[in-house]
Structures are given as structure tokens and as C-alpha cells.
Amino acid sequence: MNWLASLSIALLIAGCGVPPNQVVPLRDGTLRAITYVQAGDHCREKGLTARMLGKAPAEQGVLFRCE
Q1: If you count DSSP H runs as helices and E runs as strands, how many of each does the chain have, helices first?
Q2: pTM here?
């Protein structure tokens, strides 16, 4: 197997990690999502309403709570 094929397989495996559209729980009970729409959808699935708390640190999505 040549080095290019090995590199392609390694990149494929590395790309199969955490999906980018995942809602992540934080230590203080808040949640982080990539977009406001995703946050709203996450809470709606649970029969709750999303309360937006603002931008996540380093502007990596939004912070919210389901109420």
C-alpha cells in the first residue's frame, strides 16, 4: 500500500469522530449547539422551549438551556 492510500485512510478515520451538529452539555448545566436553530430543535424534541444565553466562548456556537 503506498503512502497516499495510507494517508487517505487515516484522514477518513479521523473525519469519523464527533459530528459537527452535536449538542454538547457543559458542566454548569447549560448546553452548547452550533446554531440557534439546532438549539431550538433540540429542546423542541424534548417538549421544552430553548432559552438562549448568548454566544459560546470563542464564538464556537451558542449557549442555551431547555426550560
Answers
A1: 2, 4
A2: 0.65
